UniProtKB/TrEMBL annotation, chain B:
<feature type="transmembrane region" description="Helical">
    <location>
        <begin position="60"/>
        <end position="81"/>
    </location>
</feature>
<dbReference type="GO" id="GO:0005886">
    <property type="term" value="C:plasma membrane"/>
</dbReference>
<dbReference type="GO" id="GO:0006740">
    <property type="term" value="P:NADPH regeneration"/>
</dbReference>
<feature type="transmembrane region" description="Helical">
    <location>
        <begin position="6"/>
        <end position="28"/>
    </location>
</feature>
<keyword id="KW-1003">Cell membrane</keyword>
<keyword id="KW-0812">Transmembrane</keyword>
<dbReference type="Pfam" id="PF12769">
    <property type="entry name" value="PNTB_4TM"/>
</dbReference>
<protein>
    <recommendedName>
        <fullName>proton-translocating NAD(P)(+) transhydrogenase</fullName>
        <ecNumber>7.1.1.1</ecNumber>
    </recommendedName>
</protein>
<keyword id="KW-0472">Membrane</keyword>
<keyword id="KW-1133">Transmembrane helix</keyword>
<keyword id="KW-0521">NADP</keyword>
<keyword id="KW-1278">Translocase</keyword>
<dbReference type="GO" id="GO:0050661">
    <property type="term" value="F:NADP binding"/>
</dbReference>
<dbReference type="GO" id="GO:0008750">
    <property type="term" value="F:proton-translocating NAD(P)+ transhydrogenase activity"/>
</dbReference>
<feature type="domain" description="NAD(P) transhydrogenase alpha subunit C-terminal">
    <location>
        <begin position="7"/>
        <end position="89"/>
    </location>
</feature>
<keyword id="KW-0520">NAD</keyword>
<feature type="transmembrane region" description="Helical">
    <location>
        <begin position="35"/>
        <end position="54"/>
    </location>
</feature>
Protein backbone atom coordinates (compact mmCIF):
# COMPACT_ATOMS: atom_id res chain seq x y z
CA UNK A 1 0.00 0.00 0.00
CA UNK A 2 0.90 3.62 -0.34
CA UNK A 3 2.85 4.73 2.77
CA UNK A 4 0.78 6.67 5.29
CA UNK A 5 3.08 9.71 5.21
CA UNK A 6 2.53 10.03 1.46
CA UNK A 7 -1.21 10.07 2.00
CA UNK A 8 -0.88 12.64 4.79
CA UNK A 9 1.19 14.82 2.44
CA UNK A 10 -1.53 14.49 -0.18
CA UNK A 11 -4.13 15.50 2.38
CA UNK A 12 -2.02 18.58 3.10
CA UNK A 13 -1.89 19.33 -0.63
CA UNK A 14 -5.70 19.02 -0.87
CA UNK A 15 -6.13 21.46 2.03
CA UNK A 16 -3.70 23.88 0.38
CA UNK A 17 -5.78 23.74 -2.83
CA UNK A 18 -8.94 24.64 -0.90
CA UNK A 19 -7.14 27.51 0.84
CA UNK A 20 -5.78 28.61 -2.55
CA UNK A 21 -9.25 28.91 -4.08
CA UNK A 22 -10.50 30.64 -0.96
CA UNK A 23 -7.59 33.09 -1.06
CA UNK A 24 -8.04 33.79 -4.77
CA UNK A 25 -11.60 34.96 -4.08
CA UNK A 26 -10.50 38.10 -2.25
CA UNK A 27 -8.17 40.84 -3.54
CA UNK A 28 -6.13 41.03 -0.34
CA UNK A 29 -5.29 37.33 -0.16
CA UNK A 30 -5.27 36.48 -3.87
CA UNK A 31 -1.55 36.41 -4.43
CA UNK A 32 -0.87 34.39 -1.29
CA UNK A 33 -3.66 32.03 -2.30
CA UNK A 34 -1.99 31.37 -5.61
CA UNK A 35 1.32 30.64 -3.86
CA UNK A 36 -0.43 28.22 -1.46
CA UNK A 37 -1.81 26.41 -4.48
CA UNK A 38 1.63 26.21 -6.02
CA UNK A 39 3.02 24.80 -2.75
CA UNK A 40 0.28 22.17 -2.71
CA UNK A 41 1.04 21.18 -6.29
CA UNK A 42 4.78 20.96 -5.55
CA UNK A 43 4.18 18.72 -2.51
CA UNK A 44 1.81 16.48 -4.46
CA UNK A 45 4.30 16.12 -7.32
CA UNK A 46 7.20 15.33 -4.98
CA UNK A 47 5.40 12.57 -3.08
CA UNK A 48 4.15 10.94 -6.29
CA UNK A 49 7.56 9.21 -6.50
CA UNK A 50 7.06 7.53 -3.12
CA UNK A 51 3.96 5.44 -3.77
CA UNK A 52 6.04 2.37 -3.03
CA UNK A 53 7.27 -0.83 -4.58
CA UNK A 54 3.88 -2.45 -4.73
CA UNK A 55 2.36 0.35 -6.77
CA UNK A 56 5.20 0.71 -9.25
CA UNK A 57 6.13 -3.00 -9.24
CA UNK A 58 9.60 -2.24 -7.90
CA UNK A 59 11.37 1.11 -7.85
CA UNK A 60 9.84 3.88 -10.03
CA UNK A 61 10.53 2.89 -13.60
CA UNK A 62 11.86 5.24 -16.26
CA UNK A 63 12.80 7.72 -13.50
CA UNK A 64 15.33 9.72 -15.59
CA UNK A 65 12.89 10.09 -18.49
CA UNK A 66 10.14 11.20 -16.10
CA UNK A 67 12.34 13.85 -14.50
CA UNK A 68 13.46 15.13 -17.89
CA UNK A 69 9.84 15.32 -19.08
CA UNK A 70 8.88 17.27 -15.95
CA UNK A 71 11.79 19.64 -16.53
CA UNK A 72 10.86 20.18 -20.19
CA UNK A 73 7.22 20.87 -19.37
CA UNK A 74 8.11 23.17 -16.48
CA UNK A 75 10.52 25.22 -18.58
CA UNK A 76 8.01 25.55 -21.44
CA UNK A 77 5.27 26.59 -19.01
CA UNK A 78 7.51 29.00 -17.11
CA UNK A 79 8.93 30.72 -20.18
CA UNK A 80 5.54 30.97 -21.88
CA UNK A 81 3.97 32.43 -18.75
CA UNK A 82 6.79 34.96 -18.22
CA UNK A 83 6.99 36.07 -21.84
CA UNK A 84 3.29 36.46 -22.59
CA UNK A 85 2.02 40.02 -22.84
CA UNK A 86 -0.70 41.15 -20.48
CA UNK A 87 -3.15 41.54 -23.35
CA UNK A 88 -2.63 37.90 -24.30
CA UNK A 89 -3.33 36.45 -20.85
CA UNK A 90 -6.73 34.94 -21.71
CA UNK A 91 -5.40 32.82 -24.56
CA UNK A 92 -2.43 31.73 -22.43
CA UNK A 93 -4.82 30.44 -19.78
CA UNK A 94 -6.77 28.68 -22.53
CA UNK A 95 -3.62 27.00 -23.78
CA UNK A 96 -2.56 25.84 -20.29
CA UNK A 97 -6.06 24.54 -19.70
CA UNK A 98 -6.07 22.65 -22.97
CA UNK A 99 -2.81 20.83 -22.33
CA UNK A 100 -4.09 19.87 -18.87
CA UNK A 101 -7.19 18.33 -20.44
CA UNK A 102 -4.99 16.60 -22.99
CA UNK A 103 -2.83 15.14 -20.20
CA UNK A 104 -5.90 13.75 -18.42
CA UNK A 105 -7.11 12.14 -21.67
CA UNK A 106 -3.71 10.58 -22.38
CA UNK A 107 -3.51 9.16 -18.83
CA UNK A 108 -6.84 7.42 -19.29
CA UNK A 109 -5.78 6.06 -22.68
CA UNK A 110 -2.68 4.54 -21.04
CA UNK A 111 -4.73 3.04 -18.22
CA UNK A 112 -7.11 1.56 -20.78
CA UNK A 113 -4.25 0.03 -22.76
CA UNK A 114 -2.37 -1.34 -19.76
CA UNK A 115 -4.98 -2.45 -17.24
CA UNK A 116 -7.91 -3.80 -19.31
CA UNK A 117 -10.20 -3.30 -16.36
CA UNK A 118 -13.37 -5.37 -16.30
CA UNK A 119 -15.17 -3.00 -13.91
CA UNK A 120 -17.90 -1.04 -15.69
CA UNK A 121 -17.48 1.85 -13.24
CA UNK A 122 -13.76 2.19 -13.94
CA UNK A 123 -14.35 1.85 -17.68
CA UNK A 124 -17.00 4.56 -17.56
CA UNK A 125 -14.68 6.92 -15.69
CA UNK A 126 -11.89 6.14 -18.17
CA UNK A 127 -14.11 6.88 -21.13
CA UNK A 128 -15.47 10.04 -19.48
CA UNK A 129 -11.92 11.32 -19.03
CA UNK A 130 -10.98 10.54 -22.63
CA UNK A 131 -14.05 12.33 -24.00
CA UNK A 132 -14.10 15.38 -21.71
CA UNK A 133 -10.30 15.76 -21.67
CA UNK A 134 -10.15 15.63 -25.48
CA UNK A 135 -13.02 18.10 -25.90
CA UNK A 136 -11.25 20.44 -23.50
CA UNK A 137 -7.96 19.95 -25.38
CA UNK A 138 -9.12 20.81 -28.90
CA UNK A 139 -11.73 23.30 -27.66
CA UNK A 140 -9.09 25.22 -25.72
CA UNK A 141 -6.61 25.15 -28.60
CA UNK A 142 -9.32 26.62 -30.81
CA UNK A 143 -10.12 29.39 -28.31
CA UNK A 144 -6.38 30.09 -28.24
CA UNK A 145 -6.33 30.33 -32.04
CA UNK A 146 -9.33 32.67 -31.98
CA UNK A 147 -7.96 35.01 -29.32
CA UNK A 148 -4.47 34.99 -30.82
CA UNK A 149 -6.14 35.83 -34.13
CA UNK A 150 -4.60 32.86 -35.87
CA UNK A 151 -8.13 32.53 -37.24
CA UNK A 152 -11.21 34.72 -37.24
CA UNK A 153 -12.47 35.51 -33.76
CA UNK A 154 -16.02 35.80 -35.06
CA UNK A 155 -18.54 32.99 -34.71
CA UNK A 156 -17.96 30.43 -37.44
CA UNK A 157 -21.23 28.88 -38.55
CA UNK A 158 -20.74 26.07 -41.03
CA UNK A 159 -23.76 25.02 -43.10
CA UNK A 160 -25.86 22.54 -41.16
CA UNK A 161 -23.30 23.00 -38.37
CA UNK A 162 -25.85 22.40 -35.69
CA UNK A 163 -26.78 19.00 -37.13
CA UNK A 164 -23.16 18.01 -37.69
CA UNK A 165 -22.39 18.88 -34.06
CA UNK A 166 -25.39 16.93 -32.79
CA UNK A 167 -24.46 14.04 -35.09
CA UNK A 168 -20.88 13.89 -33.81
CA UNK A 169 -22.10 14.19 -30.21
CA UNK A 170 -24.50 11.27 -30.69
CA UNK A 171 -21.77 9.22 -32.40
CA UNK A 172 -19.46 9.96 -29.45
CA UNK A 173 -22.04 8.75 -26.92
CA UNK A 174 -22.84 5.63 -28.98
CA UNK A 175 -19.13 4.79 -29.32
CA UNK A 176 -18.63 5.37 -25.59
CA UNK A 177 -21.43 2.94 -24.71
CA UNK A 178 -20.13 0.39 -27.22
CA UNK A 179 -16.69 0.72 -25.66
CA UNK A 180 -18.03 -0.05 -22.19
CA UNK A 181 -19.77 -3.17 -23.49
CA UNK A 182 -16.88 -4.23 -25.70
CA UNK A 183 -13.56 -2.67 -24.61
CA UNK A 184 -11.37 -2.91 -27.73
CA UNK A 185 -8.50 -0.65 -28.74
CA UNK A 186 -9.93 0.24 -32.14
CA UNK A 187 -13.12 1.58 -30.55
CA UNK A 188 -10.99 3.63 -28.16
CA UNK A 189 -9.13 5.31 -31.04
CA UNK A 190 -12.45 6.01 -32.75
CA UNK A 191 -13.79 7.57 -29.54
CA UNK A 192 -10.65 9.67 -29.15
CA UNK A 193 -10.99 10.98 -32.72
CA UNK A 194 -14.68 11.79 -32.33
CA UNK A 195 -14.06 13.63 -29.04
CA UNK A 196 -11.27 15.73 -30.53
CA UNK A 197 -13.55 16.73 -33.42
CA UNK A 198 -16.41 17.45 -31.01
CA UNK A 199 -14.27 19.94 -29.08
CA UNK A 200 -13.64 21.90 -32.28
CA UNK A 201 -17.29 21.82 -33.35
CA UNK A 202 -18.49 23.07 -29.95
CA UNK A 203 -16.19 26.11 -29.90
CA UNK A 204 -16.34 27.10 -33.62
CA UNK A 205 -19.68 28.95 -33.39
CA UNK A 206 -18.64 30.93 -30.31
CA UNK A 207 -17.82 34.57 -31.02
CA UNK A 208 -14.81 36.60 -29.90
CA UNK A 209 -16.39 38.35 -26.95
CA UNK A 210 -17.86 35.14 -25.54
CA UNK A 211 -14.62 33.21 -25.75
CA UNK A 212 -13.44 34.03 -22.18
CA UNK A 213 -16.62 32.48 -20.77
CA UNK A 214 -15.96 29.37 -22.84
CA UNK A 215 -12.41 29.21 -21.49
CA UNK A 216 -13.84 29.21 -17.99
CA UNK A 217 -16.28 26.45 -18.94
CA UNK A 218 -13.55 24.31 -20.52
CA UNK A 219 -11.51 24.91 -17.38
CA UNK A 220 -14.31 23.33 -15.36
CA UNK A 221 -14.42 20.47 -17.91
CA UNK A 222 -10.73 19.78 -17.44
CA UNK A 223 -11.26 19.78 -13.67
CA UNK A 224 -13.95 17.13 -14.01
CA UNK A 225 -11.81 15.01 -16.32
CA UNK A 226 -8.96 15.20 -13.81
CA UNK A 227 -11.36 14.08 -11.08
CA UNK A 228 -12.47 11.15 -13.24
CA UNK A 229 -8.85 10.21 -13.94
CA UNK A 230 -8.39 10.18 -10.16
CA UNK A 231 -11.18 7.61 -9.95
CA UNK A 232 -9.50 5.55 -12.66
CA UNK A 233 -6.17 5.63 -10.80
CA UNK A 234 -7.84 5.24 -7.38
CA UNK A 235 -6.15 8.48 -6.34
CA UNK A 236 -7.98 10.63 -3.79
CA UNK A 237 -5.94 13.80 -4.35
CA UNK A 238 -6.79 13.93 -8.06
CA UNK A 239 -10.46 13.43 -7.25
CA UNK A 240 -10.45 16.25 -4.69
CA UNK A 241 -8.41 18.72 -6.79
CA UNK A 242 -10.28 17.96 -10.00
CA UNK A 243 -13.68 18.21 -8.34
CA UNK A 244 -12.79 21.48 -6.60
CA UNK A 245 -11.87 23.00 -9.94
CA UNK A 246 -14.85 21.45 -11.70
CA UNK A 247 -17.34 22.75 -9.14
CA UNK A 248 -15.83 26.19 -8.58
CA UNK A 249 -15.19 26.56 -12.32
CA UNK A 250 -18.82 25.81 -13.15
CA UNK A 251 -20.03 28.38 -10.63
CA UNK A 252 -17.46 30.91 -11.86
CA UNK A 253 -18.58 30.39 -15.47
CA UNK A 254 -22.17 31.12 -14.46
CA UNK A 255 -21.11 34.22 -12.53
CA UNK A 256 -19.08 35.52 -15.48
CA UNK A 257 -22.00 34.95 -17.85
CA UNK A 258 -24.33 36.74 -15.43
CA UNK A 259 -21.99 39.71 -14.97
CA UNK A 260 -22.18 40.12 -18.73
CA UNK A 261 -25.93 39.84 -18.73
CA UNK A 262 -26.08 36.77 -20.91
CA UNK A 263 -27.30 33.26 -20.07
CA UNK A 264 -24.71 30.56 -20.64
CA UNK A 265 -26.78 28.73 -23.26
CA UNK A 266 -26.71 31.86 -25.43
CA UNK A 267 -22.94 31.99 -25.17
CA UNK A 268 -22.58 28.47 -26.47
CA UNK A 269 -25.41 28.22 -28.93
CA UNK A 270 -26.24 31.88 -29.64
CA UNK A 271 -24.73 31.85 -33.12
CA UNK A 272 -27.15 29.13 -34.16
CA UNK A 273 -30.19 31.21 -33.32
CA UNK A 274 -31.47 34.12 -35.30
CA UNK A 275 -30.82 37.38 -33.52
CA UNK A 276 -34.07 38.99 -32.48
CA UNK A 277 -33.95 42.73 -33.04
CA UNK A 278 -35.64 44.59 -30.21
CA UNK A 279 -37.20 47.06 -32.63
CA UNK A 280 -39.52 46.21 -35.48
CA UNK A 281 -37.34 48.02 -38.02
CA UNK A 282 -34.11 46.22 -38.89
CA UNK A 283 -30.91 48.18 -38.48
CA UNK A 284 -30.16 48.45 -42.22
CA UNK A 285 -33.35 50.43 -42.82
CA UNK A 286 -32.75 52.99 -40.09
CA UNK A 287 -30.79 56.12 -40.75
CA UNK A 288 -27.54 56.64 -38.85
CA UNK A 289 -25.19 59.57 -39.08
CA UNK A 290 -21.73 58.53 -40.14
CA UNK A 291 -18.76 60.84 -39.74
CA UNK A 292 -15.32 61.13 -41.30
CA UNK A 293 -12.15 61.13 -39.15
CA UNK A 294 -11.90 64.89 -39.85
CA UNK A 295 -15.41 65.46 -38.48
CA UNK A 296 -14.52 63.55 -35.33
CA UNK A 297 -11.23 65.44 -34.94
CA UNK A 298 -13.02 68.79 -35.21
CA UNK A 299 -15.70 67.71 -32.75
CA UNK A 300 -13.05 66.69 -30.24
CA UNK A 301 -10.83 69.73 -30.81
CA UNK A 302 -13.63 72.17 -29.97
CA UNK A 303 -14.90 70.31 -26.93
CA UNK A 304 -14.24 71.33 -23.35
CA UNK A 305 -14.80 67.95 -21.77
CA UNK A 306 -14.40 64.54 -23.41
CA UNK A 307 -15.03 61.10 -21.94
CA UNK A 308 -13.50 58.03 -23.59
CA UNK A 309 -15.42 54.75 -23.21
CA UNK A 310 -13.12 51.85 -24.14
CA UNK A 311 -14.48 48.39 -24.87
CA UNK A 312 -13.66 45.05 -26.39
CA UNK A 313 -13.08 46.61 -29.83
CA UNK A 314 -10.16 48.57 -28.38
CA UNK A 315 -8.58 45.39 -27.07
CA UNK A 316 -9.18 43.46 -30.30
CA UNK A 317 -7.65 46.25 -32.38
CA UNK A 318 -4.76 46.63 -29.89
CA UNK A 319 -5.44 50.38 -30.07
CA UNK A 320 -4.46 51.22 -26.47
CA UNK A 321 -1.36 53.21 -27.46
CA UNK A 322 -3.19 55.11 -30.20
CA UNK A 323 -5.96 56.15 -27.83
CA UNK A 324 -3.39 57.35 -25.30
CA UNK A 325 -1.74 59.42 -28.05
CA UNK A 326 -5.13 60.94 -28.95
CA UNK A 327 -5.86 61.78 -25.33
CA UNK A 328 -2.42 63.37 -24.87
CA UNK A 329 -3.09 65.60 -27.90
CA UNK A 330 -6.45 66.65 -26.47
CA UNK A 331 -5.05 67.31 -23.00
CA UNK A 332 -2.31 69.45 -24.61
CA UNK A 333 -5.11 71.55 -26.12
CA UNK A 334 -6.45 72.13 -22.59
CA UNK A 335 -9.40 69.76 -22.97
CA UNK A 336 -10.49 67.77 -19.91
CA UNK A 337 -10.37 64.05 -20.76
CA UNK A 338 -11.29 61.01 -18.67
CA UNK A 339 -11.67 57.33 -19.40
CA UNK A 340 -14.89 55.70 -18.19
CA UNK A 341 -14.20 52.12 -17.18
CA UNK A 342 -17.17 49.78 -17.07
CA UNK A 343 -16.52 46.80 -14.76
CA UNK A 344 -17.05 44.23 -17.51
CA UNK A 345 -15.88 46.26 -20.50
CA UNK A 346 -13.78 43.99 -22.66
CA UNK A 347 -15.60 41.01 -21.16
CA UNK A 348 -12.69 40.24 -18.89
CA UNK A 349 -12.97 41.82 -15.45
CA UNK A 350 -10.13 44.30 -15.14
CA UNK A 351 -9.32 43.94 -18.85
CA UNK A 352 -9.44 47.67 -19.64
CA UNK A 353 -7.41 48.63 -16.56
CA UNK A 354 -4.67 46.20 -17.51
CA UNK A 355 -4.74 47.20 -21.17
CA UNK A 356 -4.52 50.95 -20.50
CA UNK A 357 -1.96 50.51 -17.73
CA UNK A 358 0.22 48.70 -20.29
CA UNK A 359 -0.03 51.75 -22.56
CA UNK A 360 1.09 53.99 -19.66
CA UNK A 361 -2.23 55.78 -19.34
CA UNK A 362 -2.06 57.71 -16.03
CA UNK A 363 -4.15 56.00 -13.38
CA UNK A 364 -5.96 59.21 -12.39
CA UNK A 365 -7.53 59.44 -15.85
CA UNK A 366 -9.33 56.11 -15.34
CA UNK A 367 -12.71 56.62 -13.67
CA UNK A 368 -14.97 53.89 -12.36
CA UNK A 369 -18.56 53.74 -13.55
CA UNK A 370 -20.23 55.17 -10.42
CA UNK A 371 -17.74 58.03 -10.30
CA UNK A 372 -18.08 59.08 -13.96
CA UNK A 373 -21.80 58.58 -14.61
CA UNK A 374 -22.91 61.91 -13.05
CA UNK A 375 -20.42 63.70 -15.32
CA UNK A 376 -21.95 62.70 -18.68
CA UNK A 377 -24.59 65.50 -18.81
CA UNK A 378 -21.78 68.07 -18.61
CA UNK A 379 -19.69 66.31 -21.26
CA UNK A 380 -19.39 67.66 -24.81
CA UNK A 381 -18.27 64.47 -26.51
CA UNK A 382 -18.45 60.86 -25.33
CA UNK A 383 -16.11 58.84 -27.55
CA UNK A 384 -17.09 55.16 -27.48
CA UNK A 385 -14.25 52.97 -28.77
CA UNK A 386 -15.40 49.46 -29.54
CA UNK A 387 -17.95 49.22 -26.74
CA UNK A 388 -21.64 48.62 -27.24
CA UNK A 389 -23.63 46.71 -24.64
CA UNK A 390 -22.05 48.55 -21.69
CA UNK A 391 -23.48 51.83 -23.04
CA UNK A 392 -26.84 50.47 -24.22
CA UNK A 393 -29.69 52.32 -22.47
CA UNK A 394 -31.91 49.27 -23.05
CA UNK A 395 -30.23 47.80 -19.97
CA UNK A 396 -31.65 50.72 -18.00
CA UNK A 397 -34.97 51.41 -19.76
CA UNK A 398 -36.23 48.34 -21.63
CA UNK A 399 -37.53 45.66 -19.28
CA UNK A 400 -37.79 43.12 -22.10
CA UNK A 401 -34.11 43.45 -23.04
CA UNK A 402 -31.95 40.44 -22.15
CA UNK A 403 -29.38 42.73 -20.55
CA UNK A 404 -32.00 44.64 -18.51
CA UNK A 405 -30.63 45.41 -15.07
CA UNK A 406 -26.96 45.46 -16.05
CA UNK A 407 -25.47 48.78 -14.91
CA UNK A 408 -24.34 50.91 -17.87
CA UNK A 409 -22.36 54.05 -18.64
CA UNK A 410 -24.88 56.80 -19.46
CA UNK A 411 -23.26 58.07 -22.68
CA UNK A 412 -26.70 58.97 -24.01
CA UNK A 413 -26.71 61.90 -21.58
CA UNK A 414 -23.64 63.52 -23.17
CA UNK A 415 -24.12 66.42 -25.59
CA UNK A 416 -22.64 64.47 -28.49
CA UNK A 417 -21.71 60.81 -28.85
CA UNK A 418 -19.17 59.34 -31.26
CA UNK A 419 -19.01 55.59 -31.81
CA UNK A 420 -15.98 53.95 -33.36
CA UNK A 421 -17.43 50.67 -34.62
CA UNK A 422 -16.44 48.00 -37.06
CA UNK A 423 -19.97 47.55 -38.39
CA UNK A 424 -23.61 47.97 -37.48
CA UNK A 425 -23.56 44.47 -36.04
CA UNK A 426 -25.06 44.56 -32.53
CA UNK A 427 -22.88 43.77 -29.52
CA UNK A 428 -22.74 40.17 -28.37
CA UNK A 429 -25.98 40.54 -26.42
CA UNK A 430 -27.53 40.78 -29.90
CA UNK A 431 -29.78 43.74 -29.22
CA UNK A 432 -29.97 47.07 -30.97
CA UNK A 433 -28.48 50.08 -29.25
CA UNK A 434 -30.86 53.01 -29.56
CA UNK A 435 -28.05 55.50 -28.95
CA UNK A 436 -26.68 54.63 -32.40
CA UNK A 437 -29.78 56.11 -34.02
CA UNK A 438 -29.90 59.22 -31.84
CA UNK A 439 -29.52 62.45 -33.90
CA UNK A 440 -26.66 63.58 -31.64
CA UNK A 441 -24.69 60.41 -32.37
CA UNK A 442 -22.05 60.08 -35.10
CA UNK A 443 -20.51 56.82 -36.23
CA UNK A 444 -17.03 56.27 -37.59
CA UNK A 445 -16.82 52.82 -39.10
CA UNK A 446 -13.65 50.78 -39.23
CA UNK A 447 -11.03 49.03 -37.13
CA UNK A 448 -10.56 51.03 -33.91
CA UNK A 449 -6.82 51.42 -34.41
CA UNK A 450 -7.11 52.59 -38.04
CA UNK A 451 -9.89 55.02 -37.15
CA UNK A 452 -8.01 56.43 -34.17
CA UNK A 453 -4.82 56.81 -36.19
CA UNK A 454 -6.75 58.80 -38.80
CA UNK A 455 -8.37 60.97 -36.12
CA UNK A 456 -4.96 61.64 -34.56
CA UNK A 457 -3.60 62.60 -38.00
CA UNK A 458 -6.54 64.94 -38.63
CA UNK A 459 -6.14 66.50 -35.17
CA UNK A 460 -2.48 67.22 -35.80
CA UNK A 461 -3.21 68.92 -39.11
CA UNK A 462 -5.97 71.13 -37.69
CA UNK B 1 -10.38 2.65 -1.72
CA UNK B 2 -13.93 1.43 -2.26
CA UNK B 3 -16.33 3.13 -4.66
CA UNK B 4 -18.62 4.59 -1.98
CA UNK B 5 -15.75 6.30 -0.15
CA UNK B 6 -14.54 7.83 -3.41
CA UNK B 7 -18.08 8.94 -4.24
CA UNK B 8 -18.38 10.53 -0.78
CA UNK B 9 -15.16 12.46 -1.30
CA UNK B 10 -16.34 13.51 -4.76
CA UNK B 11 -19.70 14.83 -3.55
CA UNK B 12 -18.24 16.65 -0.55
CA UNK B 13 -15.59 18.23 -2.77
CA UNK B 14 -18.31 19.65 -5.03
CA UNK B 15 -19.81 21.49 -2.06
CA UNK B 16 -16.44 22.78 -0.88
CA UNK B 17 -15.57 23.93 -4.41
CA UNK B 18 -18.79 25.90 -4.74
CA UNK B 19 -18.59 27.30 -1.21
CA UNK B 20 -15.04 28.67 -1.41
CA UNK B 21 -15.58 30.75 -4.55
CA UNK B 22 -19.16 31.85 -3.91
CA UNK B 23 -18.17 35.31 -2.68
CA UNK B 24 -15.57 36.21 -5.31
CA UNK B 25 -15.63 39.82 -6.53
CA UNK B 26 -16.02 40.42 -10.27
CA UNK B 27 -12.57 41.93 -10.66
CA UNK B 28 -10.98 38.62 -9.60
CA UNK B 29 -12.92 36.37 -12.00
CA UNK B 30 -10.03 36.11 -14.42
CA UNK B 31 -7.23 35.40 -11.90
CA UNK B 32 -9.47 32.90 -10.09
CA UNK B 33 -10.12 31.06 -13.32
CA UNK B 34 -6.40 31.05 -14.00
CA UNK B 35 -5.54 29.85 -10.48
CA UNK B 36 -8.10 27.04 -10.67
CA UNK B 37 -6.62 26.16 -14.05
CA UNK B 38 -3.21 25.78 -12.42
CA UNK B 39 -4.62 23.57 -9.66
CA UNK B 40 -5.89 20.97 -12.11
CA UNK B 41 -2.32 20.84 -13.33
CA UNK B 42 -1.92 18.43 -10.42
CA UNK B 43 -2.95 15.86 -13.04
CA UNK B 44 0.85 15.71 -13.32
CA UNK B 45 0.71 13.32 -10.35
CA UNK B 46 -1.47 10.95 -12.38
CA UNK B 47 0.89 11.25 -15.35
CA UNK B 48 3.87 10.34 -13.15
CA UNK B 49 2.02 7.37 -11.64
CA UNK B 50 1.09 5.80 -14.98
CA UNK B 51 4.49 6.46 -16.53
CA UNK B 52 6.31 5.03 -13.50
CA UNK B 53 4.64 1.69 -14.05
CA UNK B 54 4.66 1.68 -17.85
CA UNK B 55 5.41 -1.77 -19.21
CA UNK B 56 5.91 -1.08 -22.90
CA UNK B 57 7.17 1.72 -25.11
CA UNK B 58 3.74 2.93 -26.25
CA UNK B 59 2.73 3.47 -22.62
CA UNK B 60 6.07 5.08 -21.81
CA UNK B 61 5.97 7.58 -24.67
CA UNK B 62 2.31 8.44 -24.11
CA UNK B 63 3.09 8.85 -20.41
CA UNK B 64 5.99 11.20 -21.10
CA UNK B 65 3.75 13.27 -23.37
CA UNK B 66 1.18 13.47 -20.56
CA UNK B 67 3.90 14.55 -18.10
CA UNK B 68 5.13 17.35 -20.37
CA UNK B 69 1.57 18.60 -20.98
CA UNK B 70 0.63 18.42 -17.29
CA UNK B 71 3.82 20.19 -16.19
CA UNK B 72 3.15 23.02 -18.67
CA UNK B 73 -0.36 23.31 -17.22
CA UNK B 74 0.83 23.35 -13.61
CA UNK B 75 3.93 25.55 -13.77
CA UNK B 76 2.64 27.90 -16.47
CA UNK B 77 -0.69 28.20 -14.71
CA UNK B 78 0.71 29.31 -11.36
CA UNK B 79 3.27 31.67 -12.93
CA UNK B 80 0.74 33.36 -15.19
CA UNK B 81 -1.70 33.79 -12.29
CA UNK B 82 1.02 35.37 -10.19
CA UNK B 83 1.81 37.81 -13.00
CA UNK B 84 -1.85 38.75 -13.28
CA UNK B 85 -2.11 39.41 -9.55
CA UNK B 86 1.12 41.38 -9.66
CA UNK B 87 -0.68 43.83 -11.97
CA UNK B 88 -3.35 44.37 -9.36
CA UNK B 89 -0.97 45.21 -6.56
CA UNK B 90 1.26 48.01 -7.87
CA UNK B 91 -1.76 49.75 -9.33
CA UNK B 92 -3.32 49.97 -5.89
CA UNK B 93 -0.09 51.35 -4.48
CA UNK B 94 0.00 53.95 -7.26
CA UNK B 95 -3.54 54.98 -6.49
CA UNK B 96 -2.71 55.48 -2.83
CA UNK B 97 0.28 57.61 -3.73
CA UNK B 98 -1.85 59.74 -6.00
CA UNK B 99 -4.47 60.28 -3.33
CA UNK B 100 -1.80 61.36 -0.89
Amino acid sequence: MTPTWVRVAELLAAVLFILALKGLSSPKTARRGNLLGAAGAAIATAVAFFYGQKFYGGPVQHLPEILIAIAIGSIIGWVAARRVQMTQMPQMVALFNGVGGGAAAVISVIEFLSVHSESAAILTATIFTVVVGSVSFTGSLLTFAKLQELMTSRPVVIPLGRFITIGVAVATVVTAVALILNPTNSLLWLLLGLSLVLGILLVLPVGGADVPIVISLLNAFTGLSVAASGYVLNNVLLIVAGTLVGASGTLLTRMMAQAMGRPLTNTLFGAFKKRVASSAVSSEDRPVKSASPQDVAIMLAYARKVIIVPGYGLAVAQAQNTIRELVELLVAKGIEVDYAIHPVAGRMPGHMNVLLAEANVPYEQLKEMDEINPEFPGTDVALVVGANDVVNPAARDDKSAPIYGMPILNVDQAQQVVFLKRSMRPGFAGIENEVLFDPKTSLLFGDAKDSLTKVVGALKSL
Amino acid sequence: MDAISLLTIFILSIFVGIEVVSKVSAILHTPLMSGANAIHGVVLVGAILVTGKATDNVQLYLGLVAIVLAAINMVGGFVVTDRMLEMFKPKKAEKEEVSK
